[in-house]
Pyridoxamine 5'-phosphate oxidase N-terminal domain-containing protein
Amino acid sequence: MVSLSPVSNTGLLPFEEGIDMLDDPIADMIAARARAQQLDDPYADVCFLATVTSEGQPEVRAIALRDIEAQGIGLLINTNSPKWRQLEAAGQYTLQVFWATVQRQYRIQGQVALMEAERLQYYWSRKGYHSRLLEVYYEAVEPQSQALRSREALLDGMRALRAQYPDRDSIPLPASLVGVYLYPMTIDAWHGSPDDRLHDRRLFTRTEQGWRSSVLVP
Ligand SMILES: Cc1cc2nc3c(=O)[nH]c(=O)nc-3n(C[C@H](O)[C@H](O)[C@H](O)COP(=O)(O)O)c2cc1C
């Protein structure tokens, strides 16, 4: 586990030389994440998804980041959750990642596409017992983010599910769990340079000819 204690007055880890901004921001993200994983970045597999409610209230939450691929950023989302309802209704989001170990931030906006069933099944096959059980809870007992009368109510519900599904392989993939690809149309890529604060920041916009980029004031 990498230490998150500040080593400079910015509170960021030192800028790593030698990773230049690539012309393809998806390839840039994939390379940066692989490096962050090598460096045991605690956020290498986490992203932050912002959506907006029907009242215009922004909501943001941490989500497990699956794969980054040409078709988009893979996430699993339960369709009983507020985040799904917001994503579906507004069709708008901002996804953010920040990997301190490699001094990279990406802010992404774009479209949403459903993941193919085999890919969802693949991610399900990697989920542990408790994680699977919680997905079933969202579908069979109470939806995610629902207010409960007590924590005991949650524990009771889970006890019943554990009795019904004593082992991991007995838990079926609930229909309410979907995989999505967030397909970037714009990516604001930030390569940090904490010493002089002249971070290399580019806005990539997807066009029919490929990515167009402009340099932004950091
Ligand atoms: C590191 C981390 C990873 C998380 N990963 C997920 C996730 O993959 N899926 C999920 O539904 N919630 C995840 N959560 C919980 C969410 O941040 C949030 O509490 C929950 O999704 C709320 O759902 P809503 O925004 O739809 O109301 C994670 C939280 C943390 C701190």
In short: The pocket of flavin mononucleotide is lined by residues 46, 59, 61-64, 78, 81-83, 144-145 (CB under 6 Å). The longest strand covers residues 177-191.
